[in-house]
Design brief:
This protein has six helices and 17 strands. With 280 residues, it is of the alpha+beta class. Helix 2 runs antiparallel to helix 3.
């Protein structure tokens, strides 16, 4: 009895290869699932040879990645001018929740400096390389230039020390305000390599490889940062932050995330995106 090699099976095999599983490991998994050796060998050989209409070329993987030093499972990390708490960690995706990341004075100072410059938030348009309004994102926001004022410079230096990534590799700090009902539906932060505008975007500093969201003002209800693929929700507590990294621009990183609707009050956040090289 023959076993058909369906498009779904090919897609599953491609996803497993993208996740770093070896061909021998996939062959063993197929055998354990009841596939005959001959059928498993044919399916894997087709992938290795480049089966028509199946994309097997994997996005390049970033060798060195930003992130805190978690050797020894520390409860606190010295970020230069501040002792930052490690509240929660996850390996895949790499997620770290920080406490005591920002002081009350820093949170209030960033909000005050940003408030007069807020406008409806835009998102990067990967089809053109420009920016557009996005119905999935209903916040107001603005960007600071790197080192624009004393508080911004201090926070950026702290982030560079905490995440062991050059300050120059970071985009400008973005401040966002979410009013009641505002949200950001689940999305990825990397730039889709298949979109025509991505090469233009990448000229400024390469791919995004990590995100740090810092909570400046907590709402009265709602507003969690959600990771639907892994069932994680991070409460937006003032002064805390959530970091996550993605070593390739691909859903296999499991970094799909969003901002849940604010149910009451206002949520303010500061976001720092990190690139693979100097951001200009």
């Amino acid at each position: 009895m023959s076993q058909a090699i369906s498009p779904e099976l090919r897609e599953w095999l491609v996803a497993q290869l993208a996740a770093g599983h070896s061909v021998p490991a996939l062959r063993a998994s197929m055998r354990a699932a009841g596939w005959h050796d001959a059928a498993a060998d044919v399916a894997l050989a087709q992938l290795e040879a480049g089966f028509p209409n199946v994309e097997v070329a994997l996005p390049s993987v970033q060798a060195k990645m930003p992130g805190p030093d978690l050797d020894g499972a520390p409860l606190y990390i010295d970020a230069g001018d501040r002792r930052v708490q490690v509240l929660q960690t996850m390996r895949h995706p790499r997620v770290v929740v920080f406490g005591n990341l920002l002081s009350t004075e820093e949170c209030e100072g960033l909000i005050a400096a940003a408030r007069v410059r807020l406008a409806r938030s835009l998102t990067v348009e990967t089809r053109t390389g420009g920016e557009v309004l996005n119905v999935d994102r209903t916040s107001d926001g603005m960007f600071f230039e790197r080192g624009e004022n004393e508080i911004v410079a201090r926070v950026e230096q702290r982030i560079a020390a905490l995440l062991r990534w050059p300050l120059e590799f970071g985009e400008g700090l973005q401040i966002l305000r979410y009013a009641p009902g505002a949200q950001y539906r689940p999305h990825y932060d990397y730039f889709d390599p298949n979109e025509p505008g991505t090469p233009t975007i990448l000229k400024r500093g390469g791919q995004r490889v990590a995100t740090l969201v810092m909570y400046l003002q907590e709402p009265e209800g709602g507003g969690a940062t959600t990771f639907p693929d892994v069932g994680l929700e991070v409460a937006p507590a003032r002064g805390c932050g959530v970091f996550f990294s993605y070593d390739r621009p691909d859903p296999v990183t499991r970094t799909l995330h969003g901002g849940a609707p604010v149910l009451a009050g206002e949520k303010w956040v500061a976001t720092k995106w990190l690139r693979e090289r100097e951001f200009k």
